[in-house]
What does this fold into?
Amino acid sequence: MPMTRILAIETSCDETSAAVVVDGRAVLSNVVSSQMDLHAKYGGVVPEIAARAHIEKIGLIVEQALQEAAVTYSDIDAIAVTDGPGLIGSLLIGVTAAKTLALTLDKPLVPVDHIEAHATSAALVCDDDPWPAVSLVVSGGHTSIYHVADYDHIELMGQTYDDAAGETFDKVAAILDLGFPGGPAVDRVAKAGNPKAIRFPRTWLNEPHFNFSYSGLKTAVLYHVYGQGKKYGSAAHLSEQEIADVAASFQDALIEPLVIKTARAAAERGVTTICVGGGVAANSALRAALQSACDERGLRLLLTPMKYCTDNAAMIGLLGHQRFLAGVRADLTLEPRGGLVRTGR
Ligand code: KG4
Ligand code: ZN
It folds into this structure.
């Protein structure tokens, strides 16, 4: 069978990324330009700044991906692009670039769902497809559990109803004055803390569904640090040990529902593999808790390597390849989140 080379484009949030992926496995290039520095002083991603930075970068990043892969436009079989979900202005830049390339090069255009790509990203480092599996996606923007029967049958089992796990990490880090992005800082500080020091709420822990809610946890931490009912304040009155205890106890409360629900989802679907993707998969306490839950239950845990956890076009190339094979195509009416032309699914 001839090789299929996919040029993949990802611009759903604050990373401009392009990749060339062969047969959904061999990543010839995966160029990622992060805008972290542009957003850091605002304590979060500013949509207008993100969109403008994507406009400035997208052409160069696509060129660089082709160069690093040592291929030309004529070697490409299809253009895969994230069409959602994400920041609408950011998505628009990637989708417009992909449509322009598809039109001018006369190549097929393949839309890819960003979170489904996170859910299948662990396969990038597997020799054989790891499906069926239950996949936990935990990042700055998403907290979702999927059942992946195979690439064409990806079912959302549950998701957060409010804040995402990474977003909650970032907000708690801001309350504790630990900087942005907060996840790595909370992770580091929590190592010196007692996870049982404060009993923060674990929303819906024992509910039968697979949804999450983290806004109550965030508010509980806020009131614990600033004082009951106070929305503004500072963590300056807390000792280093107290901050570590808050960080560790918060982390424990955030992680427990993730681990319990992911394991329960695997049991319900009778799968023996759990995949984890998204930036929060870097969290050391989450990794350890998932590993021991999997060991106890005889499950295989596949943690996506960090370079494919944060937003990247390689994962779009992997799922884009599968969508391409399944006959999924978009025409030039493709718009982020709306106006999709999807066939073959
Ligand atoms: O996947 P990603 O780039 O986000 C989205 O594109 O949505 O992940 C970024 C998120 C941030 O919220 C960051 O604080 C969090 O992942 N994160 C962590 C850790 N490293 C990154 N959260 C907890 N512990 C970490 N070690
Ligand atoms: Zn993402």
The pocket of zinc ion (ligand 2) is lined by residues 114, 118, 139, 141, 311 (CB under 6 Å). The CA atoms of residues 259 and 290 lie 6 Å apart. The chain has two domains: 5-121+308-325, 130-306. Strands lie at 5-10, 15-22, 26-34, 78-84, 109-113, 133-138, 143-150, 153-159, 273-277, 300-303.
